[in-house]
Amino acid sequence: MSDLAAELSPTELAELCALADGTLPEDRRAEVEARVAASRELQELVERQRRAVLATQALATEQEPASLRAAVEGRRRALEAGRRRVWRPALAAALAVAAAVVAAVVLSGGPGAPTVADAARLATESPTGPAPRPLGSAGTRLAIGVEGVAFPDLARAYGWQALGVRRGRVDGRDATVVFYGKGDRRLAYVIVAGAGLPRPSVAQSEARRGVQYQTLRLSDRLAVTWRRGGHTCVLIGEAPRAELLNLASWPLVASP
Asked: What is the pLDDT of residues 17-43, one digit of tens each?
C-alpha cells in the first residue's frame, strides 16, 4: 500500500472510497473532490481504488486466494485494534478501501504500475484500422506484430477471423489490439511493447510448452495473459477458459 494511504485516517479513506465508487454523499462531495483535485497523489489513489473496486467485483465470482483473504483480514484487525472509537460506517468503508487497495497491489505488482487490466481495457474499444492480411501461405500469422512478436492468424485452424486493429498506449507504452470474430462472438488480442507487465498473482495458472498462462476475470470477461518474446500478451473475450488457452498457446513463429 502507498505511504499516502497509510497516513490517511479511516474517515478519510472511507470518503475516498465512497468518491471512487460513487456513493459519497452530496454534502461531502465538493470538499473531497477539491482536496483530490489539489493532490496528484490523491488523484492516483482514487483512480487505483476505482480499478480495485472493479477487480474485487470480478473476483467475487471466483474462489478468493488464501493470501488475499489473509491480507484483508490482517488489515481489518489492525484497524479495529488501533481505532476502536471510529464511527462504524467510516470503519466499514475504510475496510472496503483496504480490501480494494490490497486487490490493486495483488493484481498489479505495486501501486502506480501499469497492469494487465490496463492493457485489457484497450480491448473494450472499437477497431480503428482494417483487418490485417494473412502473412504467407502457412496460415499461422498475420502481417502485423509488436517488436518482433507476431499476431496469429486464427482463421484456418480455429475459425476466428481477424476483424480489425486498434493501436493505443498503456502507461506510456505502445500497445496493439487485433480483434477477431467467430459467428456473433468476439475476441481481442493485445500485445504491449516493452518489458513484460507485472504478472497478476490473483489468477489461475497453467503451464503449456514451458509458458505460464494465467486466467482471470477483467470487466466481467474471461482473460488469459502470458508473455511472448518478453512482451505481455492478453487474450480476452467471449470464449470459455479452455478455448482461450488453446488460442493463446497455439504455436507461432516469433517474428512477423
From this structure: 777 767 778 888 888 888 888 888 888
Three cell numbers at 143? 502481417
Burial string for 192-211 (b: 16+ CB within 10 Å, else e) reads: bbbebbebbbbbeeeeeeee
Contact between residue 91 and residue 98 where contact means Cβ atoms under 8 Å apart: no
- Answering whether pTM is above 0.70, one says no
Domains of the chain: 3-108 (no CATH), 116-248 (3.30.200.100)
Q: Which residues contact 87 (CB under 8 A, 6 or more apart)?
A: 11
